[in-house]
Amino acid sequence: MYTLREGKIEDLPRVLELINELALYEKAPEQVTNTIAMMEADGFGENPVFGMFVCEKNETAEIIGIAIYYYRYSTWKGKRIYLEDLVVTQSERGHGAGKLLFDRIMKKGLEENCTGMMWQVLDWNEPAINFYRKYGADLEAGWLNAHLQDYEIKKLLD
């Protein structure tokens, strides 16, 4: 039904469509400022900072899902694989594509000698929470996400 493969630069237009679909689902479409050009440089340039797998529907070869990852370092645990986004288009959810992508990220982490895998899920996203609970994932409470935008950093450092 589905085929998994590593993402290629020519996949980026569809990948960005899926990212925008996720942002709409998460009620934050205005927060996507990424572009194809940025993703080309960041994923396929001289020093790639992310990797990705795509899931294609066999009968159409259409990309219906993506898993984007990168590596982070934990001072407590060592090298970890970080699942930035797992997206399956709405019409294909519940048919196994998400499991294929998630399993592939876990395998990639083991191939790269990572000590584990990390990701985030919104506390109201019950379908995703239930999906991750099937794996026995620890869903931690008590941690707050923190971030500064580039324009905020520039203002602070001026």
From TrEMBL:
CDD domains: NAT_SF. Keywords: Acyltransferase, Transferase. InterPro entries: Acyl_CoA_acyltransferase, Diverse_Substrate_AcTransf, GNAT_dom. It comes from Algoriphagus winogradskyi. Residues 2-158 form the N-acetyltransferase domain. PROSITE patterns: GNAT (PS51186). This is L-amino acid N-acyltransferase YncA. Signal peptide: none annotated. It comes from the Bacteria. Coiled coil: none annotated. The keyword Transferase applies.
